[in-house]
Amino acid sequence: MSLKRGLIFIILLLGVLFIVISIYSFNPYDPGIGVSGAQEVKNLGGLLGAYLASLFFFLFGFPVLFLPPILFFGVFAYFIGTPFKKFLKIFFLILIWLSLILSFIFQNAGIKSGYLFGKYPLNGGLIGELSSFLIYYLGLPGFFFLIISYLIFILLIGFGILENISTKMKGSLKLKKTLETEKHSYSLEPEKNLKEEEKKKIFPPPLELLNDFPKFSHHTRSEELKERALILISKLKEFGIEGEIVGINPGPVITVFEFKPAPGIKLSRIINLVDDLALGLSAKSVRIVAPIPGKDVVGIEISNPKRELVYLKEILQSQAFKNSNSPLTIALGKDISGNPVITDLRKLPHLLIAGSTGSGKSIFLHSVILSLIYKSTPEEVKFLMIDPKRIELSVYEGIPHLLHPVVLDPKTATKALRWLVNEMVHNLLFFFSKSFYMPQ
User: Fold this and answer.
1) Membrane topology type, per the record (predicted)?
2) Which of 400, 404, 395 is nearest to 376 (CA)?
3) Are 132 and 7 in a shared domain?
């Protein structure tokens, strides 16, 4: 809890304690509303407490006795993070309801006036007097209908139902009005005025726009890998491990050497050489997979002297990306063997991009966006981009895949997200009503 919130909590708690003491020590003969009270003030809250309690009883009558525990509950709710104003609003609405209903009960029970324990008035206060007025003009059925409707209204506010409905309706109407009136309005309907020739021009974008990836000489790389394999064999022999390299799988970060040990060599001896091999090979890291699943060889993963950059263009040109049928195919990179890795966004219920500063979050985000742009047409995939920091996504302003211009204002972002949630709920309800299910 912050210092500011802690101070507010203490002030609220002290204020509630003062109100509780004032109410429960109320004396009808103390100075107050309509009472001069020449005698000594008996209220434990002093003159202020006497007037405060008198005001509460004058307005609400007997139901004021229910106020203290409710206020304590409200302060506790504030302590755990619930807005105190919301509780005050609800509780005063409840007080009004109790004043009306108890005033009706007291009048029909023949209790016109009187005091509980000689000091608490048995009436509904000034608010409660409205019950007679309402019964006179609405009749008894109308009065009960009003009382029940009012109680339902309080419950709806208490559970936040009305607030949620109001917020959603306001957000939906405002955003809908914006979408209908703005020049750059967006719709989920495809653009029908776009000619086929124009569509071909904008999709897909030419791959020449992306950076070219360096093409290594196959012969040169093979010679380098063979040389590293010979060094690995010699280092293993130094530790009494005989065998041969039967396969090499180069990757962008590590290279996997498939080592087949000679008969009689225990795997535990090889596994225990991780640190010694890293030192002997001057490698940043060495990892041993003993054995490789499905093979009779040991995998020795050695970090490359120089990390190879993975270019998006290379993944987008790969057969794996081209042959994927999903319009939501995204490029992830390469595996340890150097093979392109892609995935279908439809199979990812949630996608969280996280990491420390400089770890590549922004690069990956742009890779995801560009993958979708190169794989899908503007009719198949639409983007709603929100970038209040105005750093990453502003560069995509104007692309045909945008559902709406890039949202930069935080208030507009809230409306856009609310509209998006409403659309999602609407679509899900539509699918369920038609017995549609997402393909697995």
Assistant:
1) Multi-pass membrane protein
2) 400
3) yes
Which residues of the chain fall short of a pLDDT of 50? 117-118, 161-162, 165, 179-194
Per the structure, how many domains does the chain have?
A: 4
> Does 164 reside within a domain?
no
Instruction: Give residue 80's pLDDT.
Output: 67
Whole-angstrom distance, CA of residue 130 vs CA of residue 136: 10
Of 123, 104, 117, 135, give the one whose Cα is nearest residue 60: 123
Alpha helices in 159-217 (DSSP H): 161-181, 196-202
Structural domain range at position 411: 169-194+382-440
What does 309-332 look like in DSSP terms, one character per residue? PPPHHHHHTSHHHHT---TTEEEE
Beta strands in 8-129 (DSSP E): 115-116, 120-121
**What pLDDT does 330 receive?**
93
In the chain, the amino acid numbered 21 is: I
How many Å apart are CA 267 and CA 290, to the nearest integer? 7
Q: What is the residue-wise DSSP string for 283-307? A: -S-EEEESS-TTSSSEEEEEE-SSP
Give binding residues as ranges: 355-362
pLDDT digits (tens, 9 = 90+) for 387-409: 988 888 888 988 889 988 899 88
Q: Amino acid identity, residue 248?
A: I
Q: Are residues 292 and 260 in the same domain?
A: yes
CA distance 258 to 233: 11
Same domain, 26 and 122: yes
In this prediction, residue 38 carries a pLDDT of: 54
Tell me, yes or no, whether 278 lies in a domain: yes
Q: How far is CA 260 from CA 224, 241, 245, 265, 280, in A?
A: 20, 10, 6, 10, 20
The pLDDT tens digits for 27-57 are: 777 777 766 655 677 788 888 888 887 777 7
Binding residues for ATP: 355-362
- CB half-sphere exposure, 8, CA atoms < 13 A: 16
- Global pTM reads 0.50
